[in-house]
Amino acid sequence: MWWRTEDWESSAGYSFFTTYNNDLPKFNVLDHLVTASLLRKLSLGAFPGQAGVQYSYDWLGLEGDEFLTRHTVTLSGAVVEGEMNLTQGFFRYQSKDFAEGFPRPVKQEQRDADNCMVGFLHLLRFAQDRHFMKAGYQFDYDQTSGRNYEYAGHRFSAGGQYTLPWGGLRLKYDFDVQLRNYQHKNTMLPSYAPATKRRYDEEFTNTARAELPLPSNFTLAAEFLVTNARSNIEVFDFDRHVFSLVLSWTY
After folding, report:
1. Is-contact 131 99, C-beta < 8 A?
2. Whole domain around residue 239: which residue ranges?
3. Contact between residue 202 and residue 235 where contact means Cβ atoms under 8 Å apart
4. What does the angle CA 76 – CA 15 – CA 100 come to, to the nearest 5 degrees?
5. If you write DSSP's letter for every residue of 73-117 in order, what string do you get?
6. What is the average pLDDT value for the chain, to the nearest integer?
7. Distance set, CA 183 to CA 4, 192, 235 (Å)
8. Over the stretch 102-147, which tens digit does the pLDDT of each residue have?
9. What's the alpha-carbon Rg for the chain, to the nearest Å?
């Protein structure tokens, strides 16, 4: 937060993320992210709310070489309909530029894209936000340079939080399903019958998380994530299991 008045807030930030794969170092990831946002507090009749805009730029590298750059602009709004209800709506535009290297991929395989997304999220809140339930929906369209990656997507999400009376331990669970309907027959896959199928993906993600507040504004969190992806083109099937232990500090 670098500027705040009674009705306006703005912030700027930078973060980075990296992974190390001992057996597959060519897949080591480094991500730099820069963000800036502006928020306006307002009211819709008797209901308080807010509207905001955020811009972000991130640079993603594989083994130190540029892989992807993204410019993202997000418009969002939220309204508090009462003590228990809160609704958010958002629109996002994202420009994606993939480093193609040499030799350049064929036209149908180029993944540079303009992506537009619109969606909403509704929360039911209890006990001053110690407990809540949420559900949401998003639609996005990825207009890619290559026909093989152009898709229309639907995302459904649900989840909740329950705070235990002992130590303020927060238990969270989120479920997410993404459906992607690719718009053209894939010219490369499946390898035994190219140009015969339009790719269709279903991706299911379950996330369980426990957060324990500690003294001096520290929080210890343990998270287990399971992703199951299924596609009518078998090479895009995968399962992923991730366990994370995170110590964070707020100031």
Report:
1. no
2. 118-251
3. no
4. 90
5. EEEEEEEE-SSSEEEEEEEEEEEEEE---SSPPPGGG---EEEEE
6. 96
7. 45, 20, 18
8. 888 899 999 999 999 999 999 999 999 999 999 999 999 999 999 9
9. 21
Number of domains in the chain: 1
Q: Is 181 inside any structural domain?
A: yes
The answer to whether the beta carbons of residues 85 and 44 sit under 8 Å apart is no
The tokens of 167 are what? Answer: 């130590």
Kindly state whether residue 163 falls inside one of the protein's structural domains.
yes
pLDDT bucket at 1, cuts 50 / 70 / 90? low
Residue 58 lies in a domain: no
Rounded-to-5 percentages of helix, strand, coil across the chain: 5, 70, 25
Distances (CA, A) of 249 to 16, 218, 220: 16, 4, 9
Q: Which two tokens stand for residue 187?
A: 């010219």
Q: How far apart are CA 148 and CA 166, in angstroms?
A: 52
d(CA 184, CA 145): 12
The CA–CA distances, whole Å, from 64 to 24, 32, 102, 170 equal 14, 12, 17, 37
The C-alpha atoms of residue 246 and residue 250 are separated, in whole angstroms, by 13
**pLDDT score for 24:** 82
Domain annotation covers residue 91: no
